[in-house]
Amino acid sequence: MENTELEQLDRRRSMRLDLENEPVKLTWKDSEGEDQSIEATCIDISRRGMLVKHSNDLQIGTKLKLQFSSEHSDTAEMKAKVARCHRKNFSSYHMFLLLL
After folding, report:
1. Contact 14/62 with Cβ under 8 angstroms?
2. Model pTM?
3. Rg for the chain (alpha carbons), in Å?
4. Each residue of 12-35: pLDDT tens digit?
């Protein structure tokens, strides 16, 4: 197997948690240094990243903090960076966050 095939296989084997429809708060600083935040919905999470659904378009490379909002979630704040963001339909976007 080539190295890239091994990397893809490793990504598929990494542990995934099913957090479909779990609310998550995303916070970042805008171009003027002001805090901005949106509520998003976690679709999938692995040790390297997270796929979320939301109503805003964020630029690739935007660094943000995320915090799960559910009552039974006991997670600390995590840091991430926008790796991909594309329109899913007329009212929502799917965004892949690279966990830092």
Report:
1. no
2. 0.73
3. 14
4. 555 545 566 788 999 999 889 999
13 vs 96, more confident: 96
Would you state the structure tokens that stand for residue 31, as one six-digit string? Answer: 């171009």
Please classify residue 33 by burial: count the beta carbons closer than 10 Å to its beta carbon, then call 0-12 exposed, 13-18 middle and 19+ buried.
exposed
- Alpha-carbon distance of 100 to 64, in angstroms, equals 10
Structure tokens at 63: 């660094």
Residue 10: both structure tokens together: 């490793």
Residue 71 vs residues 4, 24, 43, 66, 68: alpha-carbon distances, Å: 40, 11, 17, 15, 9
Q: What backbone phi and psi angles, to 5 degrees, belong to 96?
A: -95, 125
Residue with tokens 């708060």: 25
